[in-house]
Design brief:
single chain, mainly beta, 8-stranded antiparallel beta sheet, 7-stranded antiparallel beta sheet, about 0% helix, about 45% strand
């Protein structure tokens, strides 16, 4: 088990601009570095229900309409279009800590506290004795990793703050004097899934809101009341028949992205023909290295892998170039040796931020800042394009 945290944009700060669309015509759609397909008019975005949330540039939480992309600033390392798997918040009354479903031990809860967003939706938890708890729970599946999170800021004191996620073990976390999303992850050994914010020192206090307990990944906040609540996956795709600029003989992609909490086996692009036979894939492998794979006729034609491993919440830039006998890739300016064999596949569709089957574990659960397409191969220039 491990613990970590994810800092959101500081409340009241100006946030983070994309840095990649400015200076381009057509709102950033066209530039010298290609067409940004995430702004392309024919892009298909499917996400049922108005349950997707995002953080704006001023650090405020918003709910996005169904079937729309969310431009999210929650990651301090960069903003971008948020693409996530389906998820369920297993904690009921996720922002009603004064209620009976939240167990308080050595703690007082004060409601109607400034949430830093112009409202008073937060709470203050104060420890009245050592080892203070605020705990909710629900049934979970043994052996499936859980991610527990709260939005928190330290009000008084310097004592240890810890979470229980699933089991009774206390996992230390870091809480600053600014609002941030703090999380910990663990794999439960029982079906009782706890989410507990614990203060070690009597008299310490934290401001707290928006509890979330979810399986197999950290995703954006899902509000709940008397029932658990779910968010549908972001299905973002483009039919190549709707992209007249598509060149079946060669091409280049430059993808700028910010990783999520997990970096293993995540897809950036899956360009396919609805089968595994004709594919161009850009993804991370099980170790977090970026990989570029090409299959034609069901046979692997090229496989290039970065030496560097992606780290959680990091900003990165990958470039791939492809044509018969010349497959190149680079990550953040560093290029492995090209593959000078192989033939081009005949794909028909691009899936962004997940594999073609939209398998839950392959969703980026992070931000795609830009996905630029050029209709010609640049070969060895991928290093410069990814710098």
């Amino acid at each position: 088990m491990m613990s970590n945290r994810r800092r959101s944009v500081g409340i009241g700060q100006s946030g983070f601009s994309s840095g990649f669309s400015s200076g381009f015509s057509n709102g950033g759609l066209y530039s010298a570095s290609g067409i940004d397909l995430l702004r392309y008019p024919a892009l298909s975005v499917v996400r049922a229900g108005a349950t997707g949330t995002y953080i704006d540039a001023a650090g405020r939480l918003h709910v996005s309409p169904a079937n729309t992309l969310r431009y999210d600033y929650s990651n301090p390392n960069g903003a971008g279009w948020l693409i996530e798997k389906a998820a369920t918040n297993l904690i009921k009354y996720s922002n009603a800590f004064e209620g009976a479903l939240w167990t308080k031990v050595n703690a007082t809860i004060t409601p109607n506290v400034d949430d830093g967003e112009g409202g008073t939706s937060a709470f203050t938890k104060t420890a009245t004795a050592a080892t203070s708890h605020l705990q909710g729970s629900n049934s979970v599946t043994i052996g499936v990793p859980l991610f527990g999170s709260f939005y928190m800021k330290r009000r008084t004191g310097v004592g240890q703050v810890s979470f229980r996620v699933g089991d009774l073990t206390l996992l230390p976390v870091s809480v600053s004097s600014e609002w941030s999303r703090v999380f910990a992850t663990a794999t439960p050994t029982s079906t009782t899934g706890r989410l507990d914010a614990s203060l070690a020192t009597s008299g310490d206090a934290v401001d707290i809101m928006r509890a979330q307990l979810e399986a197999d990944g950290l995703t954006s906040y899902i509000a709940t009341d008397a029932l658990t609540a779910s968010r549908a996956a972001d299905d973002v795709s483009l039919l190549l028949s709707n992209l007249p600029q598509w060149n079946p003989a060669e091409g280049t992609f430059v993808v700028e992205f910010v990783a999520g909490a997990s970096v293993a086996s995540k897809y950036l692009l899956d360009i396919h023909n609805d089968t595994s036979d004709e594919r161009i894939q850009l993804y991370t492998n099980g170790s977090g290295n970026v990989a570029f794979r090409v299959d034609d006729g069901g046979v692997q034609q090229a496989l290039l892998t970065s030496a560097a491993v992606i780290t959680p919440f990091s900003k990165n830039k990958a470039a791939i170039s492809f044509r018969d006998g010349a497959f190149h890739m680079a990550l953040n300016g560093v290029a492995p040796s090209p593959d000078t064999g192989g033939t081009m596949p005949t794909p028909t569709k691009i899936q962004f931020g997940a594999n073609r089957a939209k398998t839950a574990s392959t969703f980026l659960n992070g931000n795609l800042r830009r996905a630029s397409y050029l209709r010609y191969a640049v070969d060895g220039k991928v290093g410069a394009l990814s710098s």
